[in-house]
Amino acid sequence: MLTACVLCLARKPTLVKMAQLLRSPLLSSAAIRSASTGTLEVKEPLNFWGGGRVKPLSSSNAEPVYEPATGHVLCQMVPCVDEEVDQAIKSAHSAYLKWSKMSGMERARVMLEAARIIRERRDDIAKVEVINNGKSITEAKVDIDVAWTCIEYYAGIAGTLAGQHVQLPGSCFAYTRREPLGVCVGIGAWNYPFQIAAWKSAPALACGNAMVFKPSPMTPVTAVMLAEIYAEAGVPEGLFNVVQGGAETGTLLCHHPMVAKVSFTGSVPTGKKIMEMSAKGVKPVTLELGGKSPLIIFQDSELENAVKGALMANFLTQGEVCCNGTRVFVQKDILPKFLEEVVKRTKAIPLGDPLLDGTRMGALISRPHLDRVLGFINQAKKEGARVLCGGEPYVPADPKLKGGYFMSPCVLDNCRDDMTCVKEEIFGPVMSVLPFDTEEEVLQRANNTTFGLAAGVFTRDIARAHRVVENLQAGTCFINNYNISPVEVPFGGYKMSGFGRENGQVTIEYYSQLKTVVVEMGDVDSLF
Ligand SMILES: NC(=O)c1ccc[n+]([C@@H]2O[C@H](COP(=O)([O-])OP(=O)(O)OC[C@H]3O[C@@H](n4cnc5c(N)ncnc54)[C@H](O)[C@@H]3O)[C@@H](O)[C@H]2O)c1
Ligand SMILES: C[N+](C)(C)CCCC=O
């Protein structure tokens, strides 16, 4: 058994031409530590398979990736073509053959080592995440903590995976085996680049699968750092791979015949395409899609907590969070006081250089996305909403941030359920406040959406809290808080927000399959 394990961990590049493969780290710790906003340039290849970084076959279709806080070019993203996707998948498959034969405890040990390395490099990874994504360093550090916690959590589960024994008549019996699926594909969004890669890879690897991960073309940098860490921790060469690209590369991944499953995080329109493509190969999918979640604040709420909850529900990561509670329903009696407090706190959010410890809101992901969010605010005004604060482009005083994609966080009042800002996912720092009278009315309005990712309720009435949650059509509900997602509990949506879950024990079912074995202990009792 020991020999098998040692063999599993031996690293020999087989499928990738040596000339393409690079083994020095993507970014040295010294380079990261000396970087500040606007100074980092990533020149190293961003693909990873066969145990090392891989240079693109051609750079003719390279696309610039911008640092959101400055507008500087951070790196070039070169989409992987057919041949490269094929190499990555074959590399994953050969690693899968080794990894799937290791015991859960053996896999757990390697995963725990990966979690330890991430913990050790947490500040460096967080810094690169900030430079690539624009979110504040305080939030990015939490994201990286969530990532290693997730890997640690599934390492803990890896050794517990087991089947059932079922006694049948005549001393016969059956048993079940929980087996991996094979090569799983992960496709990520740009709002939580490192965390999404961890949320997908941790349960996949714990179950004995391999993964090919494609980050968003706007945030290509940190997934490769995760790949390097898994390799350093000792996974078989090719177990976790990164291919870069957008829709075309994603399509190649979904259609590849050696792919057993696709786990996707992104928008509803892309999720539908992923499902269609996967259906052609009868591949299971996990879809973590968008939302327009309701947050219901009853008049008996502890007001300060409700206000803090509303800010947590709307302004993390510049409002670019799938489960945000962007439709804030407030019971009429407390509406004036709630608005006064929420506006006061929103205006006080420190906005600016995301690498500074005191900053609480950084830059949006891109110039077109910033324009789109500002467009929603203009449309809201045209439809009768009142801007109580923010909603303007923001130019920080620091000259190096002049080209950044900043806007002031916005609270909209006078909203109605039929307005565009209330119906559509804005994915920016825009809170729409809606008054309500009764519990029955607010439940009907809260559920009147095709989305169903999350929902929240603030009340001191414990019976009402549970009654309301029971009737909310959402996969993740919060009582007296918002946007808290411990890795021990499942996260995912109802309705068009997707299906399948990430985190929690249940996710094991989405990355494994059950084999039933029926054992005859006597003679065959044949009908023929
Ligand atoms: N539910 C969740 O857990 C969750 C988390 C984060 C973001 N999101 C959602 O993601 C959206 C924002 O992210 P986005 O703009 O990156 O979403 P997106 O759908 O545009 O892209 C997501 C990913 O899909 C890839 N992609 C695009 N077209 C594809 C295709 N045809 N085939 C295969 N892959 C394809 C992209 O390159 C990217 O990696 C929002 O709607 C947000 O709510 C959901
Ligand atoms: C960690 N959060 C805040 C719950 C976000 C999960 C991922 C959604 O975009």
Automatic annotation (TrEMBL):
Q: What InterPro entries does the entry give?
A: Ald_DH/histidinol_DH, Ald_DH_C, Ald_DH_CS_CYS, Ald_DH_CS_GLU, Ald_DH_N, Aldehyde_DH_dom
Oxidoreductase among keywords: yes
Which pathway does the record list?
Amine and polyamine biosynthesis; carnitine biosynthesis
Instruction: Give the catalysed reaction(s), semicolon-separated.
Output: 4-(trimethylamino)butanal + NAD(+) + H2O = 4-(trimethylamino)butanoate + NADH + 2 H(+); an aldehyde + NAD(+) + H2O = a carboxylate + NADH + 2 H(+)
Q: What GO CC terms are in its UniProt record? A: cytosol
Q: Which domain of life is it from?
A: Eukaryota
Q: Where is the active site?
A: 288
Look up keyword Lipid biosynthesis and say if it applies. Answer: no
Arranged from A to Z, the UniProt key words for this protein are: Cytoplasm, NAD, Oxidoreductase
Q: Name one GO molecular function term.
A: aldehyde dehydrogenase (NAD+) activity
PROSITE patterns cross-referenced by the UniProt entry: ALDEHYDE_DEHYDR_CYS, ALDEHYDE_DEHYDR_GLU
Q: Domain named Aldehyde dehydrogenase: which ranges?
A: 61-517
Enumerate the subcellular locations listed in this protein's record, separating them with semicolons: Cytoplasm, Cytosol
Function recorded in the entry:
Converts gamma-trimethylaminobutyraldehyde into gamma-butyrobetaine with high efficiency (in vitro). Can catalyze the irreversible oxidation of a broad range of aldehydes to the corresponding acids in an NAD-dependent reaction, but with low efficiency.
Say which family it is in: Belongs to the aldehyde dehydrogenase family.
The entry describes its oligomerization and partners as: Homotetramer.
Q: What is this protein called?
A: Aldehyde dehydrogenase 9 family, member A1a, tandem duplicate 2
Report the source organism: Paramormyrops kingsleyae
